[in-house]
Give the backbone structure.
Amino acid sequence: MEAKFELGDFELDSGAVLRKAYLGYETHGELNDDKSNVIVYPTWFGGVHEDNRGFIGEGQALDPSKYFIIVPDQFCNAHSSSPSNHEAPQDRMRFPLITPYDNVNAQHKLLTEHFGIEKIAMVVGYSMSAQQCFHWAAAYPDMVERIAPICGTSKTTPHDWIHLEGMKAALQADAVWAGGDYRSRPEAGMRAAAVVVAGWAMSQTFYRRGLHLSLFGQDFKSAKEFIDFFPVAFESWDANDFIGLIQTWQSADVSNHSKFGGDLAAALGAIKCPALLMPCETDLYFPPEDSEIEAAMMPNAELRVIPSIWGHIAAHPLFAPPEDVAFIDQALKDLLARA
């Protein structure tokens, strides 16, 4: 069921107030009598709640016949408050910075105030929503019973931050961009940003084996033909939303909270619940080494690396190959079976 939760005037991490804020969300399954069967599965960069459906289904780990699965849209994805749908003076590039903690705090209000939920059986997320898993467990340790961050880290690394800055620069170099107040969509800038994404989202081995030549259900004859088509995947994106999401990704830092004062070890050490970290062995955004470092700071973390050449999209519900989906699904079942 798709719905909308009104947050009202919502105070952000920055101290700014997002006026008339709201969250879009979708639910699957039924909340049981003691409200103990809750799974939170937020959206990722550019993802919307419909996209999450690929990992939800009977017989899967995220089984709506067993669990009440809440899929909240993160800010800036056009289904929750975003630069593209907000009124002045917080429209377009005047929309305030959103951090992962802002998304998590808004979701906390949805769960507690609207549904009366006090416990979450698992928070699971992919990419940017994997970052939210860490923020959920650090901010609300007594509420979250398990987390499963897939292809994502608790803090954006310098290398990842620079890559994201490259995406921003490619888009903003388009003269049509006009500082975010464009009159027509900055097509050249969005295309340039999409080309940057294409070079990072899949691994070198993925391209070396020619798997890009049959992606998106298409048949391509060359890398050029593939990259000429690739920006089609971004045609529905608003450019200001795109920048807003990048800035949220860049701001991810679980230690950037009054409880932790910038101490990453303290923030990760505060996550007491079972945590299953699942990086992909060929992910260029979030390589396994970053997850190894973070898992070592967590008291109850397991590292389970996805053995895939598909890079970051090994866990993407729309594109992941069946063997990677099966690997992730079994890992989630194992985590849910843990006390």
About this structure: Residues 322-337 form the longest helix (16 residues). The first strand starts at residue 2 and ends at 11.
